[in-house]
Protein 1
Amino acid sequence: MSFLFTVSPDFTPDHLSGWYIFNTWLQKQTGVAIHLEMYNGFNAQREAISQDKVNLIYANPYDAAMLVREKGFLPLAKPVGESDEAIIAVSASNPVSDAAELTPGIRLAFTDDPDVKMMGMIMLEPGDLDVGNMQSMPCDAYVQVAKHLLRGEADVGIFLAEAYDGLSEMIKKQLKILVRSQISVIHHSLMIGPGLLDKREQFQQCLLGMTGDEKGRGVLESLGFRAWEKVDDEEMEFMIDLMDTLTL
Amino acid sequence: MINDMNPRDIVGEFRETVLNLYGGMQRKVFYTGIETPYPDGKLIVSTTDPTGIITHVNQAFIDMSGYTEAELIGAPHSILRHPDMPSAAFKDLWDTVERGEKWQGFVKNLRKDGGYYWVKATVVPNIRKGVVVGYTSVRRKPSRTKVEECIALYPTLF
Ligand SMILES: Cc1cc2nc3c(=O)[nH]c(=O)nc-3n(C[C@H](O)[C@H](O)[C@H](O)COP(=O)(O)O)c2cc1C
C-alpha cells in the first residue's frame, strides 16, 4: 500500500519538479512508498482531505488548522526563513498612496490562495473595505492579478509577497506597493497525518538531516528552500490560534 | 504586581489619574494626547495566562507599547489600560473569552511614554487537550471611521 502526499496548490509552479524529486528522495530515505498527487486547485485537494485520502501534506497555514483540529495531523517541519506575507498593490499610475485612501466600489483582483487573501483583506480594512463593498475579480495566478492591474481592469490586487517579488522587472515598474505585510509567524508546514503518524520522528530526522548530505542539499535547492526546521506541536497550535483571530 | 507610571518616562504635557484595576489594585497613570499611528502591515501579538498575566509578546507589541520585553512578561495586561477605555469593554472581553468564544473590539492603549494607539483587537482562548491554558490577542490596524465611532461612544459608557 502506498501513502498519499500532496502539496498546497499555492506553491510556485517553478518548483513542481522539485516536489517530485523531493518525494523520490523521501521514499528512498524512509523506505515508505509514497505517491505524490498534485490536485488541480484547493477544492479538489480539500475533497481528498475530507475523504481521508491524504497522509502527508505541505499545507498552507489556513488548511493547517483544519488538518490538526479535525483530521489529527501533526506538524513535521517548515522551510527555514520562509513566511507567508501578502502585498497590496495598485497600478503605478494610481494616485492612491495608502490603503486607507481606497474607496468602496473598487475592483479587487486576487487568487484563491486562502491565507494570502485573508492577509490582504486585513490590510484593506483600514479603508473600511470588505468583500461586501468591493467588486471581486478572482484569478488563477498572480501574473493574472498583475495583468488586470496593468490593463486597468482591476484597481487593487492582492499578491503573495514571494510571487510579487518574482514578477518581471518590467511588470513591477508599472505597479506600486501600498502595503507589504510583516507578520513573520504565518508559514506553510509539512504535516503528517493518519496512517503515517508512527513514522513522525523518522520523517522529522530525515528532513532535518537534509542539509547534511550533498544529495539532500540538491533536493532542497530544487524546492527553493535552504533547510527544513522542526515545528513542534505548540508552535503549530500558536499559529492556529493566531489564524483563528484573523478569520472573522 | 503593577507599578505606577513614572513621570520621567512621559513625553509631552500630561494629565494624571488613578485607575482601579481588577483585584483591588490601583495604578497612577500619566497620559498625553499624542497618538502613535498603527504600523502598516504589522500585527501586534501577545499571549497571557488564564488570569491575564502576559506570557509572550512580539516585537511589534514591544515597539508600540514602549516597554521592554522584560517589563511586559509577568505583568498584568492592564499595564496598557488607558483611562479613556470604559471598564464595560473589558468586562465584555473577559465574559466572552471565559465562555470559550472569540472577542473582538476597538481598544485605545496607553504607552509607557503616556501616548496612545488605537487597535482592532481579537482575543481567543488557547485550548490544549480541552483545557484553557491562556489567551492570545492579535491586533491589527483599525479603520479611522470605526475609531471615530468609538471616540464618540466610549465616553457615554462610563
Ligand atoms: C489576551 C488578552 C489581551 C488583552 N489586551 C489588552 C490590551 O491590549 N489593553 C488593555 O487595556 N487590556 C487588555 N486586556 C484586558 C486586561 O486584562 C484588563 O482586563 C483590562 O486592561 C482592564 O483592567 P482590569 O481588568 O484590571 O480592570 C487583555 C486581556 C487578554 C486576556
Note: The mean pLDDT of chain B is 97.
Protein 2
Amino acid sequence: MSIRNYIVGAMATAMSVTTALPALAQTEITWWHAMGGQLGETVNEIAEKFNASQSDYKITPVFKGTYEETMTAGIAAFRGGEQPNVIQVFDAGAATLIGAKGAVIPAQTLMKDNGVPFDINDYISGVRYFYADTDGTMIGMPFNSSTPIMYYNEDALKKAGVTPPKTWEEFQSVTAPKLKAAGYVPLSQSHLPWIFTENFYSRHNLEFATMDNGYESGTPVMLLNQDPIKGHFAAVKEWLDNDLFAWYGTGWTDNQKPFNEGQVAMWLGSSGSFGGVKSAAKFPFNATYLPYWESLTKDPTQTFIGGAALFAMAGHSEDENKAVAEFFRFLTSPEVQYFWHKETGYVPITTAAYDLAKKDGYYKETPQAEVGIKQLSLPGGDWTKGYRLGFYVQIRDVMNREYGKIFAGEKTVDEAFETIEIESNKLLERFARSMGN
Amino acid sequence: MNKSQFRSPLYPYLLLLPQLSIVVIFFYWPAAEAIRSSFYLEDPFGFSSTFVGFDNFEDMVSRSDYVASARFTIIFSVLVTFFSLAAALLLAVTADRVIKGASTYKTLLMWVYAIAPPVAGLIGIMLFDNLVGPIAEFFRSFGWDFKLGVNRFDTAFAMITVSIWKQIPVNFIFFLSGLQGIPKSVQEAAAIDCASSTRRFWTITFPLLAPTGFFLLIINITYSLFDTFGVIDVVLKGEPGNNPVTLVYKVFLDGFRGGDLGGSSAQSVILMVLVLILTVFQFRLIERRVHYN
C-alpha cells in the first residue's frame, strides 16, 4: 500500500518537475487524503480535472491510509513544518484540528481573502454548520459527506409481505418478525456510535452534549446516560436475542457483507455506501430514511453528516493559500460536486449541485442516491447541526466496547451507559486540559 | 610483551562514534522524550503543553480498560511464551530422533520461518475468519459458535493461537541446533544407563538445553509483549470494540489513533520499566542458575 504510494508520489513529483518547467509561475499544492480504492481514483480524477482546468496551480493528491492514519501523519508533518496544504480529516477528528488554534485557516476566511465568493447558505442545511465554529464560520470544507440511511433488499421485503419500516415500533412488531419468518436476518448495521448513538440523537432532536453539543469552548458533558438512548439499546439487545437483529462485530464490512450476500434483509449504512452495494448486490435494492421511535417524537428531524472535510493547513505562502482557495472554488462548483456525488454516492454539498443532479434526471434512474441528501434536508432542530467533541475517537472506542458488552450479556444497559458516561466525560475533561482550557 | 595502544586517547571514541550516535538518536533520545512527555498534557499539534506531574499515570491506572489490558497482557504473554516454546521443543526433539530423511523433515519445518511475519499473521487470521475460515467452521461443527471479533474469548483465542504459530519455527531452529550441540558420547552413555527415553530427556537432554531454552524464554517474552502487535492489528482490523488488547497495542490506540500524547507516553514509560525489570531478572537471577558448560 505505502510503497505504491511512494512510487506514485515520486512519479507525480518527477512528472510535475518536468511539466512545471515551462510554466514558471505555477504554484504547487499537496492534498493528503484517506480515500482508498475506487474513491481514491475519483479523488485523482478531480485533481486532474482541476489541473487541466487552469495553468496557474497544480494540486497533487497523496493517499495516506485510513482517516486516523491520515490525521496522525498530518499532525506529525505539522510539527515537523512539512504539512500539506490540504488535509482530509474525518468527523471524529474535527475537534482536535479545530481546537488547536493556529493549525488551520478557516475555509470561509481563506476563500473570502482570496476573492472567491462564499455564501454559507449555498450549502445544504445538514452540511452547513457541522465543521463550523460557534460563530457559524465554516472552518473545514465538507468534502465527502454522507449520512446513515436504511438499505433494504426488495426481494426479501416482497417475500415477507412488508414495506420498509418508518418507525422502530413498526420494525419490531411487524417488519422484523415477518422477515424472520421468511428466512432472513431482518437487520444489521455498520457503526454503533455513528448510527445508533450520534444519529439517534439528531433524528430525535435530543441534546447530545452540553455547551451546544460541544461547539462552545469549554468542557462539555455528554448526555449519554439518558432514558431515550438506553431504551433504544435495551430494545436492540432484545432484537439481538430474538434474532431480529444481527451484530457481526465492530468492523464496517463484517456487517455489510451479509446484506450484500442476501442473508440480511435491511442494513443501516452510509449513503456513501451506495456504489459498493450496487456493485456487490445481486438483488434489487432500495433505500429509505433511518427509522425513529414514535414514542419519542412525532416529528423526526434531520441526521448528522458523517465522512470528512478538507482543511487548509496554516503555515504556507500566500500563493499557495490562494491556490487552495481556487481549488475550493473548483471543488464546490456544481459540476464537480455532481461528478463526485455520482461516482461515489457521497451527497452533493451545495443546493446548486443538488439541483443540477435533479435537472439531469439522475434520481429518476437511481432514486436510492437521493435518500441521503433528502434526509439531510429534513427539518432541523436545536440539536441537529452536529457536535464538536474532543478525544472523540477514544469516546467512540469506549462506546463500541460497552455496546459489545451489552450485546455479549456481560453488562446490563444501565451499567454500560454509566461507564460510557463516566469515561467519556473524563476524556472530554482531559481534552479540554490538553488544549490549555 | 608488546602493548598495542592507540596513539591518541580520543581515537577509540571516534571509532565508536557512528555506533554510539545511532544508539543515542534512535534509542536514548526517543526514550527521554517519552519520559518527558509522560509528565505533560499536550495537544497533538504541540501548541499548548502543561506540566501535570504524575496525573497521566494516575489517570492511566484508574481507567478500567488499562487494568483490563494489563491483565490480558500477562495471560497472553504467559500462554504465547509457554506454548510456542513447548511446541517447538517437541518438534525439535522429534525431528532430531528421525533417522531416515532427517534433513528433509528439518528443512520442511524450518521453511515456515521464511514466510514474512505479516503474511503469516494474515494467513493465520484468514483461517479463523467468521465467513470463510476453515478453523472457525471446524469449531462450529463441534457446536462451538466461534465468532471472531464478537466474542472476547474467541478473539483472544485466535490472537494467541496465531501468535504461537508464528513463533514456533524460530524456536524450532534454536532448539534443534541446541540438540545437535549435545555430545553424542553423553547421549550414548545415558542410553546405556537408562532405558526410559522420557527419563533420559528430562535428566540429560533438558538440562543441557537450558542455555538455549533460557535465551529463547527471554526472546519469546519480548516477542509476545512487543512483536505480536501486527497479529493483533490484523485481528482487530483497526476497531478494538469489546476485544482484548495488549499494552503495546493500547499505547498505539491512545497515542496514534486518539492523539493523547501524554497518556500514551505514560503507558510506554511503564513498558520501559517492565523491560528494565525483565533485563535485571535475566542477568541477576536466572543466568546464574543456568548451566552453560
Note: Strands of chain B lie at 40-42, 49-51.
